[in-house]
Amino acid sequence: MSESFKRMNPNILITGTPGTVKEKGLHEGFDQEFQSYILDDDKVVDELEDIVSKGGNIVDYHSCDLFPERWFDLVLVLRTDITILYDRLEKRGYPQKKITENIDCEIFQVILEEAKESYANEIVIELQSNTIQDMESNASRIEQWVYNFKTQKNKH
Description:
By secondary structure, the chain is an alpha/beta fold. The chain is built from six helices and six strands. The strands form two sheets. Strands 4-1-5-6 form a four-stranded parallel beta sheet, with helices on both faces. Strands 2-3 form a two-stranded antiparallel ribbon. A hairpin with a 4-residue loop joins strand 2 and strand 3. Helix 3 packs antiparallel against helix 4. ATP binds at residues 19, 21, 92.
């Protein structure tokens, strides 16, 4: 029986161009050029394994290919207009090189393609995240999906 069938509550991965984990030491150091921590993928996966196996988790991460496919019941890829994305990253104080890399990732749909290559197409959903209205609509869609997931589990 797959892990998904054992879980009563779904695991959801929310990913997309930029959103680390320094509190638990799950990194290999700090990248001065990009002004961010370099995650140790193995440490991250090990840290989350027991938590995720129980279900009912939302994992928010800027990428998706490091997580095992069995972990997630839904993968949401947030997309943003590049002008809005640029302004958001600039307001966060990101270095220009990091902004450019993230804009390029969004233009070339890097995260969306990564999600489609890493997970079953039927669980990968692309959502726009440009406005407050988009975010509210996305939250409603997710709530409905979780409700449907739980309803289906209760029927089995």
